[in-house]
């Protein structure tokens, strides 16, 4: 990994394809609505308790930015805001945030608080629960990704058979699922920042430490997977796995 003349430190665009370079190339996430991420909690908030859970929809913001804005609205520490995980910034995402709000404060009053914020996020639902939402407490996430412009300038009778063939192969055999560029920050610079922090033994906030460790772990995974793809053994067990 190095800093190239374009200023991009790391990009997944150069990693080898599972089944060779595709015949069709389209654009993803041209708009926030082209990538929709919906958190699947796996259980229902109890309806009572000292923690008020907010079902939030956001666009163009990180989960940490929404967390910080909620903390400011409720005049509490950011560490007291609970969430199950970080969602993509350049997307339309929906997830739960928990805020410590005593039951003496009605949900209606809380709704008036969050309605005062004007920005790229909104609260779709409010529910009470006994506990703070913890990292990793959700069952998973549902993703909906729209690809646009794939057929621009390509005759349909040529492109469609290739597309269907690829889809069928992925259904039967799967594909090498790399971590995407969003995991590494703008132009991949989170990896560089993480390396610098390790070399200089910098003290980092909990959020930055988690972000940088995640970027490095994902980078190493991508590098190993790319070698396995190149050796055509990415879907087979090898010594050391």
Could you name the key traits of this structure?
2 domains, 32% helix, Pseudouridine synthase, disordered N terminus, 241 residues
Would you write up a description of this structure?
This protein has five helices and eight strands; from the N terminus they run βββαββαβββααα. The chain is an alpha+beta fold and 241 residues long. The chain has two domains: 1-18 and 176-234, no CATH class; 33-141, TruD, catalytic domain (Pseudouridine synthase, 2-Layer Sandwich). Strand 4 (82-83) and strand 5 (92-100) form a beta hairpin. Helix 4 (189-200) crosses helix 5 (206-230). It is globular, with a radius of gyration of 21 Å.
Q: How would you concisely characterize the structure shown here?
A:
The protein has 241 residues and is of the alpha+beta class. It contains five helices and eight strands. It starts with 26 loop residues before the first strand and ends in an 11-residue tail after the last helix.
Present the secondary structure layout.
Layout (H helix, E strand, L loop, with lengths): L26 E2 L6 E6 L10 E9 L3 H12 L7 E2 L8 E9 L6 H9 L5 E9 L10 E6 L1 E2 L7 H18 L15 H12 L5 H25 L11
Parallel strand pairs: 2-5
Antiparallel strand pairs: 1-8, 2-7, 3-5, 3-6, 4-5
Helix pairs in contact: 4-5
């Amino acid at each position: 990994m190095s800093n190239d003349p374009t200023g991009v430190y790391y990009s997944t665009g150069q990693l080898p394809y599972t089944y060779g370079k595709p015949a069709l190339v389209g654009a993803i996430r041209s708009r926030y609505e082209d990538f929709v991420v919906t958190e699947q909690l796996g259980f229902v908030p109890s309806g009572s308790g000292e923690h008020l859970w907010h079902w939030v929809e956001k666009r163009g913001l990180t989960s940490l930015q929404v967390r910080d804005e909620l903390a400011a609205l409720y005049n509490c520490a950011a560490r007291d805001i609970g969430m199950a995980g970080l969602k993509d910034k350049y997307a339309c995402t929906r997830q739960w945030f928990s805020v410590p709000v005593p039951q003496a404060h009605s949900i209606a009053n809380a709704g008036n608080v969050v309605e005062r914020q004007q920005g790229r996020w909104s609260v779709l639902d409010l529910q009470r629960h006994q506990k703070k939402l913890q990292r990793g407490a959700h069952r998973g996430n549902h993703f909906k990704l729209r690809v646009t412009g794939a057929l621009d300038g390509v005759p349909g009778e040529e492109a469609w058979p290739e597309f269907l063939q690829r889809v069928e192969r992925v259904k039967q055999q799967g594909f090498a699922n790399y971590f995407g560029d969003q995991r590494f920050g703008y132009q991949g610079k989170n990896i560089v920042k993480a390396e610098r922090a390790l070399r200089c033994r910098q003290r980092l906030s909990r959020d930055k430490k988690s972000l940088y460790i995640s970027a490095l772990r994902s980078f190493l995974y991508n590098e190993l997977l790319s070698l396995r793809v190149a050796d055509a053994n990415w879907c087979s067990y090898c010594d050391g796995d």
